[in-house]
C-alpha cells in the first residue's frame, strides 16, 4: 500500500465514488493520474479493501462505484497510527528561481508577477472557502475538521508565498543591472 492507496481509501470512507470522481477529489491533496488510480483500485478490490458495483447509465457508459470495506477501514486506521513521511514539494518556480542568473530582469519580474497573481487568487479562494464552512467544522471530531485545518494551512502557505514573490519582485526592480564587460582592446 502506498500513500495514494490510503488517500483513496480515506475518500471512500466519506462516501462511495467512481474512479473518475476519486481522481478529481484526490487532486487537492495528492497529484495522481488515471494511470495510477485505476490499477490501485483494482488491486485494493482484489485485496478486499474495497468493493465495486456497476451502475447502469442511460446517456453514458456504465460506471463502477467503489465503497470501502471493513478491512479497508481497518487498514486506514492502522495507517493513521503511523508517523507521516517528510513533506515533498515540486514547484517549477523554485527551479527557475535557481536559474534566474541566465535570464533578463524583465523576464524574471514577469515570472514572479504571474505567480503572485496565482497566490492572490488562492488567498481569495481559501478565505471564501473558510468563511463558508459551518461552525461545527472548527471542532475536532467533525467530519469537516480536517478540511477546515487544511484550508487554513493552504491560506497561510499562499500568504507566505505571496509575501516571498512580492519580496523577490521588489529586489528585482531595485537591482542594479550588471554591466556587460567590454571586449578587451587588442593593439
Automatic annotation (TrEMBL):
Superkingdom per UniProt:
Bacteria
GO MF terms, alphabetically ordered: DNA binding
Membrane-spanning regions, if any?
none
- Indicate what this protein is called per its UniProt record: DNA-binding PadR family transcriptional regulator
Q: Does the keyword DNA-binding apply?
A: yes
Q: Does the keyword DNA-binding apply?
A: yes
Supply the Pfam families for this chain. Answer: PadR, Vir_act_alpha_C
Q: Which organism is it from?
A: Paenibacillus hunanensis
Positions of the Transcription regulator PadR C-terminal domain: 90-173
Q: Where is the signal peptide?
A: none
Q: Which SUPFAM superfamilies does the protein's record reference?
A: Winged helix' DNA-binding domain (SSF46785)
Concerning InterPro entries, the annotation shows:
Tscrpt_reg_PadR_C, Tscrpt_reg_PadR_N, WH-like_DNA-bd_sf, WH_DNA-bd_sf
Q: What is the lineage of its organism?
A: Bacteria, Bacillati, Bacillota, Bacilli, Bacillales
Name the keywords, alphabetized: DNA-binding
- Where would I find the Transcription regulator PadR N-terminal domain in this sequence? 8-78
Amino acid at each position: 500500500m502506498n500513500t495514494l492507496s490510503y488517500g483513496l481509501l480515506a475518500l471512500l470512507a466519506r462516501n462511495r465514488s467512481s474512479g473518475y470522481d476519486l481522481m478529481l477529489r484526490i487532486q487537492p491533496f495528492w497529484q495522481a493520474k488515471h494511470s495510477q488510480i485505476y490499477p490501485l483500485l483494482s488491486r485494493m478490490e482484489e485485496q478486499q479493501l474495497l468493493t465495486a458495483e456497476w451502475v447502469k447509465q442511460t446517456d453514458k457508459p456504465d460506471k463502477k462505484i467503489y465503497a470501502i470495506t471493513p478491512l479497508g477501514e481497518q487498514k486506514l486506521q492502522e495507517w493513521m497510527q503511523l508517523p507521516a513521511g517528510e513533506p515533498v514539494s515540486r514547484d517549477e518556480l523554485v527551479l527557475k528561481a535557481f536559474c534566474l542568473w541566465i535570464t533578463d530582469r524583465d523576464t524574471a519580474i514577469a515570472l514572479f508577477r504571474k505567480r503572485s497573481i496565482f497566490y492572490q487568487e488562492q488567498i481569495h479562494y481559501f478565505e471564501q472557502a473558510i468563511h463558508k464552512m459551518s461552525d461545527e467544522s472548527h471542532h475536532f471530531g467533525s467530519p469537516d475538521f480536517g478540511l477546515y485545518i487544511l484550508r487554513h494551512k493552504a491560506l497561510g502557505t499562499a500568504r507566505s508565498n505571496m509575501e516571498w514573490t512580492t519580496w523577490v519582485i521588489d529586489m528585482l526592480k531595485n537591482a542594479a543591472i550588471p554591466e556587460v564587460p567590454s571586449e578587451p582592446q587588442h593593439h
